[in-house]
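Sat 14:20. Reprocessing the chain from the morning session after the first attempt stalled halfway. Input below, unchanged.
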Amino acid sequence: MTDNQSTARPGPGAGGGARETKYGRIATVLRQRCARLGDGQQLPSEKELATEFGVSLMTLRRALDLLDEEGIVRRVLGRGTFVQRRIVAKGDVLTSFSEDMRMRGLTPSSRLIGIEVLEPAEDVRKDLLLGPRESVVALERLRLADGEAMCLETAHLAARFTGVLEADALEGSLHELLASRGHVLESAVRRIRAVAADERQALLLGLRAGEPVLQIIQVFYDAKGTAIQRSCAHYRADRYEAFTKVRRAPAG
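Finished this time. Tokens:
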């Protein structure tokens, strides 16, 4: 069998019909190995890895290409291959923080900092289309991935949702909690800009004051177009990026 041939191998939930390439299996092993190594640690040379796995340099390089595309390693010409802290990319599909982390093999969790009912700021009132006398529930949490701080998030919901929130469930996904109570979030409007972390944000996120963070403000709507939740999150710019697919409009 040549290096590039595929071999039958059961996939998750499959009965054995899935097929995986040899370089794909090598990438799986190296992916697990990188997860145990620290940021910046160097992997053995390509020649050493090819010898270890008993494959050609071409096959080994295809495996490394996969890890490079996933942001797990960075390859420096003339120096070698280095473990890279995982960057989480936010795309143009509506997903919660917890879903984003799980899709990338990270374990999401949250630390509840505070929750209170208060009069909303004007921008929150406008985004949630609240009346002049309506209050909001403000929920501040530190969101983590594999135990490492990823973002500091403040979520606002109309005060009528107070009874939906359960303190013991707020360490998980707020979207999943709302969905379990019949409020499924179907769409969102997102605004992103770069700002400097203030002292409190920097302390909670493990940064230095003044370092850049991504401020992502999102307003979430249900299937009827009702604004349910507004969140303002400050993400570590070294761990998170946002991307959008764009296309040219048809010529008029």
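DSSP finds seven helices and twelve strands in the chain.
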